[in-house]
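Record 1 of the preview.
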Amino acid sequence: MPEVRKVLIVELWGIGDVVMMSAVLQPIRAAFPQAEICVLSQPHGREILLENREVDRFFMFRFPWIAFRGKYFFWRWDWSGIVRIIMSLRREKFDLLLDARGDPRNVLLAGLIGAKRSVVFNKSDRIKHRVAHWGEVLLQLGLKPQAMRPSITLIADELIEADRFLVSIFAGRPARLAGIHPGAAQKVRCWSLARFEAIASRLKAGGVGVLVLAEPDGYGEEISRSLGLPSCRLGLRQLAAIIARLDLLVCNDTGVMHIAAAVDTPLVAVFGPGSPDFIGPRGVASVVLRECRYRPCFDHCRRDSAECLDKVTVDDVWKAVVDRLDTGGVRE
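->
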C-alpha cells in the first residue's frame, strides 16, 4: 500500500453511529501510526470523540440527507454550505477515505472529496452489526478486525466532576446507583414514560439511588416530579461521565445506549422497531424486546403505535434490571 499520511473517516449520522464508528479508530491508528486521522461528522461527533487521542482533527457539517423528514426537499438544502465543505475537504488531499455506511449519497460524496483511495462498505455483503461493517472496511485494507469495541475516552477531570455532581444531588453516593433515560431522538423508539416510571419506582423501593437523565427539552422530568427523584439535563460529555459512574442504565434504543456501552456501564435497553442484531449495544448489556412481524422497520412504523414496544411489559424489563444488577456488580 502506498504511504498513507492523511486519513478521513466519514460518519454523518447519529450519536450512536459515531460511537459505533469509534471501534475502528484504534485499529486505524495502529496501522498508520504517523498519519493524521480526521473525522467528518455532525458537531456531536467532535463532542463525543474529543478526548479520543486517535483523532487529530474534525470536520463538521450536517448533510441534508441524514434528516428524518424533508431530506428530499432539495430546494431547502444548504447548497453553498455543501460546496464549501466539499471544497475544503478536497484541499486536504486525503490519501485514504473510509466509510462504512454504503449509502449511495455517501459514495458520491467520497468521489467529490477526491481521496487517493476510498474504501466504502458494500451493503450487499452479509454482515449484520454496524461495528462489523467497519470491520469489513478494515478487511478491505488488508487489516484484521480483532476485538473491535466502541470506546469513549473520558479524562480524570470529567469523572471527578461527575462524582462531585452525584454526591451533591444524593447527599452522598448511594451504594447502588441507576440511571433512567426515557428519551430518544425518534419518538417511535420510546417505551412509555409510565412504564419507565414503574421501573424507577421499583428501583427506589429496593434502595437503589435513581437519577433521571432527561432530554434537552425536559422529556422525562415527569418521572422525577412524580417520584421525587433527582433529574438533570446534560451535554454529551457530562452525560457520558455521569453514565460511567452508574451501576446500571435503563434506556431505549438510542445514542445514549451506545454511550453507556462504550464507557462499560451495565445497561438494559428496550428495543422497539430497531434490530439489535444490526444496532444493538456492545458490552455489558441486556436487550429487552418482543417479537414483531414488522421488525426491523427502524423509525418508520407502519402501525398507529409501535406494537413492538407496546408488547414490552414492566415485568419484562424489571426481570432484566434485576438480573443485570445482580451480575453487574457495584462501582467503587
